[in-house]
């Protein structure tokens, strides 16, 4: 064997740090220095290769401070031994010192080098790591997991989400790789020296970060390439940040009341599934629930003007967004509506939407407690566009449209005051002769309000006439509904307030003196703009009165009488629109409920509501909770009945009889018994169907001032009364003018030859003032120093707007009288409490059959000017031919319902009845008092089996019927107490 450098050399081994890509860390590395080597031949054995560096690597590389590199090329295959120039690189230059070295190209495929020793802290550089460049990217994949038993399906692996670091390099199979995973910049797990074929095992699984991080996190991966396991790795190649989670398009939005914005969401991670069967995968989803943190507490519902205080609602099927296993790549949308609070807001409102994902399955636990940044929503007020927009019809009647156009219309019959097809919502009024001896007058004697499939009716007349007035002994008041959310009815003395689901408010008053409805006021909502029709005209977006006289068929016209007449309901031509008949047509129709939700974030069947409140957060199992919040039919809401409080925080009783009747059911037109489905004793017998006199088509006659009145006198009287009723302290109210009220007052004096209607006109002016002031949020937030201390401007001003200033017998608060001791009547405190209610009556003339009613309580009709009514009762029994009292007088408190109705509990002996029992009926003698001392006239109620007896309350006698079965089942016990 020939001795030469290729087989006789020293070895430099396991010094991979001599690679050009290695950066020396002076704080931790032992600095390589070749100042001690011998001037002899060396072979380099390194996993990174044995070739000397041919480019300046840079100071502080190759494991030393001053690296040495070959300023030339290695010998090619035809060369054996060559002499080359090497350079010492320092901070002063890339070739600060030149060094001569020899290089031998050995046939066995390696090189040997004859090296000279160097200065301290300098060393020769050999080889490097792979110079391949990688561009890694984080990708999401579904990986198979455990098999779960799913009934009726073949077992298939479950699917869960994972992250994969994907990249490509040339000759990829020639290298091994290091994969580093990071979440939010923090190292999570590392895989080293992984061959290309095993890269599938480097995915980031949920077990690597579960319990440490939540979704909506930044995921990155880094790759280093090596020639072989343990060799010097190349540089880190880092992926772009992968936003892993569920993200909105942006985090700040603005929405106008009554309008909406669509918030787009993107899921960047697939949803897992308990199986990989396609049918099962189509039913795998993850819900992301929404709520508003500022409302997530136990505070009660806040209301103002019978409208709930809220900021936004959501047009969806449940409070959240659903993302499926198969559609996770599709964008999801959340439709958010600005909530109309019915106030003229002093500034924009704002709220935040927060997400939660507390309810997850085993394969989707990565979504547990997702961290989505709160989304801010600013709500811009739109209600202020309706400032001073109030329709009023009062007295005989004088009408002002929504946009402020006044006219006078004195036809009689049923007319459409307001109509909006959105519900549909209708307000109809009945006009009949006022009874002042003039055939040209027309007063309100009925109001009917339809809200979708529900109907509220209050009627005081039994016949419509041009020349005469025909009033009922007691007004008929009733709600026919099977859906509590169709309308809100609140009674306060002689005033009623009905609020529709769209926020439109109808307020009217009933005179205890004349028994006419003195005023109907309709405050439109933003959903009425350019939509409402009827005698109230069209509320335009800019208060444009030019189109107010909108003829039902011809559109806008100039003739106010022709316009108004077009909205008259003629029984012969508009029979399906009549609301004052026993069975209005719409109640027999099937409700047309078509829910259209453009969102794709649903998970449950739609109920009657399509808007969700989404204010509170549920616990771990919250799907039913989030669905239950979706009961609204519009982007506003009147105050729930259990949140409406009377002065003194007293909850009101249901003011009227509420009836739910099947749309398929037909009742006798001559004798109808209306019943509550929950209370068979809450009954109204409205035998007095509405009739029309033969003179209804007679022409209106003209009148002049009479009884000593002149136009000048009327003007002076009206101006004085109306200006006195509106205090000078009132702030400026746009659109509030006393001119129209004064002119109407003058006409009333002309028609009636007296001042009978003046106070009603004053009441209409005060009502408009209060309805406008109460919607001005600034007035309720601004304090005013008064003699009584600090109070808001709203409280102070409305304390000056009570009828007759409460006759000096009470205090005025928000336009409502609180009477002093000894006086009653929240209208004006003009009645003495010692005067008892008189002329009271009972349903069905006091007859209560135990087979159709529970007879545990009864309504009593009359005029009740106090909310505290005392009932004195005494029990008696009807025997064959006589009656006997079986108890002493007992005084109990009645339940106040409304101005014309109270309810009283009854009690009877608890015993079985039989056909041979001598007792034919039980009964009570009832009388009422305002002060618990002075009682008025008494009425009698008989409780009996109507299959066996016929009774008469006036004669206090009962008669056995031949039809009474010899053996019969026991009738219901007429017992309470």
From TrEMBL:
Keywords: Disulfide bond, Signal. GO terms for molecular function: signaling receptor binding. Residues 389-575 form the VWFD domain. It comes from the Eukaryota. The keyword Disulfide bond applies. GO terms for cellular component: cell surface; extracellular region. The keyword Cell inner membrane does not apply. It holds the Pfam family D8C_UMOD. PANTHER family: EGF-LIKE-DOMAIN, MULTIPLE 7 (PTHR14949:SF56), EGF-LIKE-DOMAIN, MULTIPLE 7, 8 (PTHR14949). This is VWFD domain-containing protein. It comes from Mytilus edulis (Blue mussel). The lineage of its organism: Eukaryota, Metazoa, Spiralia, Lophotrochozoa, Mollusca.
């Amino acid at each position: 064997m020939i001795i030469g450098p290729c087989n006789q050399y020293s070895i430099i081994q396991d010094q991979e740090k001599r690679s050009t890509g290695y950066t020396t860390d002076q704080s931790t590395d032992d600095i390589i220095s070749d100042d001690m080597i011998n001037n002899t031949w060396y072979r380099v054995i390194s996993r990174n290769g044995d070739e000397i560096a041919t480019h300046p690597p840079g100071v502080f590389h190759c494991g030393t401070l001053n690296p040495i590199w070959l300023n030339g090329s290695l010998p090619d295959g035809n060369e054996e031994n060559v002499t080359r120039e090497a350079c010492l690189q320092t901070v002063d230059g890339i070739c600060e010192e030149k060094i001569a070295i020899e290089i031998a190209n050995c046939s066995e495929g390696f090189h040997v080098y004859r090296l000279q020793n160097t200065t301290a802290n300098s060393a020769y550089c050999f080889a490097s790591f792979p110079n391949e460049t990688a561009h890694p990217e984080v990708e999401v994949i579904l990986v198979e997991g455990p098999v779960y038993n799913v009934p009726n399906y073949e077992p298939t692996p479950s699917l869960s989400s994972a992250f994969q670091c994907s990249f490509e390099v040339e000759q990829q199979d020639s290298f091994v790789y290091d994969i580093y995973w990071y979440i939010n910049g923090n190292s999570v797990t590392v895989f080293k020296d992984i061959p290309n074929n095993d890269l599938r095992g480097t995915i980031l699984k949920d077990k690597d970060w579960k319990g440490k991080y939540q979704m909506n996190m930044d995921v990155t991966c880094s790759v280093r390439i090596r020639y072989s396991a343990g060799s010097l790795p190349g540089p880190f190649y880092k992926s772009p940040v992968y936003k892993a989670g569920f993200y909105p398009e942006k985090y700040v939005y603005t929405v106008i009341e009554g309008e909406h914005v669509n918030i787009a969401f993107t899921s960047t991670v697939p949803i897992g599934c308990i199986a990989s069967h396609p049918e099962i995968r189509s039913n795998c989803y993850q819900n992301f629930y929404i709520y508003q943190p500022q409302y997530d507490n136990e505070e009660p519902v806040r209301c103002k003007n019978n409208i709930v205080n809220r900021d936004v609602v959501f047009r969806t099927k449940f409070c959240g967004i659903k993302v499926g296993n198969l559609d996770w790549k599709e964008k999801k949308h959340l439709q958010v509506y600005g909530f109309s609070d019915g106030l003229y807001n002093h500034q924009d409102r704002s709220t935040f939407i927060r997400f939660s994902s507390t309810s997850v399955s085993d394969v989707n636990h990565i979504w547990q407690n997702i961290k989505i940044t709160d989304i801010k929503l600013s709500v811009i007020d739109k209600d202020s566009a309706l400032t001073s927009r109030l329709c009023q019809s009062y007295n005989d009647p004088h009408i002002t449209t929504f946009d402020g156009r006044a006219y006078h219309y004195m036809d009689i019959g049923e007319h459409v005051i307001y109509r909006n097809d959105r519900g549909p919502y209708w307000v109809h009024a009945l006009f009949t002769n006022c009874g002042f001896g003039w055939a040209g007058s027309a007063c309100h004697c009925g109001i009917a309000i339809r809200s979708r499939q529900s109907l509220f009716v209050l009627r005081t007349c039994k016949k419509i006439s041009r020349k005469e007035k025909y009033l009922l002994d007691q007004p008929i008041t009733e709600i026919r509904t099977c859906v509590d959310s169709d309308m809100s009815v609140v009674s306060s003395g002689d005033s009623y307030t009905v609020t529709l689901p769209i926020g439109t408010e109808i307020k009217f008053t009933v005179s205890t003196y004349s028994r006419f409805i003195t005023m109907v006021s309709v405050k439109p909502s933003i959903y009425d703009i350019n939509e409402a029709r009827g005698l109230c005209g069209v509320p335009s977006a800019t208060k444009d009165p030019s189109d107010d006289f909108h003829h039902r068929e011809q559109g806008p016209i100039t003739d106010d009488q022709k316009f108004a007449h077009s909205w008259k309901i003629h029984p012969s031509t508009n029979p399906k629109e009549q609301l004052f008949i026993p069975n209005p047509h719409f109640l027999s129709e099937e409700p047309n409920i078509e829910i259209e939700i453009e969102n794709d974030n649903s998970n449950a069947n739609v109920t009657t509501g399509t808007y969700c409140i989404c204010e509170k957060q549920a616990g771990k199992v919250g799907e039913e909770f989030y669905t239950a919040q979706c009961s609204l039919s519009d982007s506003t809401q009147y105050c729930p009945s259990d949140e409406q409080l009377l002065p003194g925080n007293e909850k009101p009783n249901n003011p009227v009889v509420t009836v739910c009747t099947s749309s398929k059911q037909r009742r006798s037109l001559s004798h109808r018994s209306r019943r509550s489905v929950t209370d068979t004793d809450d009954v109204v017998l409205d035998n007095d169907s509405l009739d029309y006199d033969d003179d209804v088509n007679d022409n209106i006659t003209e009148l002049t001032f009479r009884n000593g009145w002149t136009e000048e006198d009327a003007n002076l009287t009206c101006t004085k009364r109306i200006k006195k009723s509106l205090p000078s302290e009132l702030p400026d109210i746009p659109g509030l003018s006393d001119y129209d009220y004064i002119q109407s007052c003058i006409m009333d004096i002309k028609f009636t030859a007296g001042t009978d209607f003046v106070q009603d006109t004053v009441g209409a002016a005060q009502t408009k003032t209060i309805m406008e002031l109460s919607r001005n949020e600034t007035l309720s937030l601004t304090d005013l120093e008064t003699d009584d201390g600090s109070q808001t401007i709203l409280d102070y001003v409305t304390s000056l707007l009570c009828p007759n200033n409460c006759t000096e017998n009470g205090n005025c608060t928000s336009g409502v009288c609180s009477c002093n001791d000894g006086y009653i009547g929240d209208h004006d405190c003009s009645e003495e409490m010692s005067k008892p209610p008189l002329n009271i009556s009972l349903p069905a003339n006091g007859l209560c059959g135990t087979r159709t009613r529970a007879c545990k309580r009864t309504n009593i009709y009359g005029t009740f000017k106090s909310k505290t009514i005392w009932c004195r009762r005494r029990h008696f029994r009807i025997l064959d031919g006589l009656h006997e009292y079986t108890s002493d007088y007992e005084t109990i408190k009645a339940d106040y319902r409304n101005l014309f109705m109270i309810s009283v509990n009854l009690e009877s002996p608890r015993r079985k009845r039989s056909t041979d029992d001598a007792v034919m009926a039980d009964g009570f003698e009832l009388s009422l008092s305002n002060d618990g001392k002075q009682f008025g006239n008494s009425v009698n109620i008989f409780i009996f089996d109507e299959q066996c007896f016929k009774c008469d309350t006036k004669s206090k006698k009962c008669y056995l019927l031949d039809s009474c079965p010899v053996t019969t089942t026991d009738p219901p016990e007429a017992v309470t107490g």
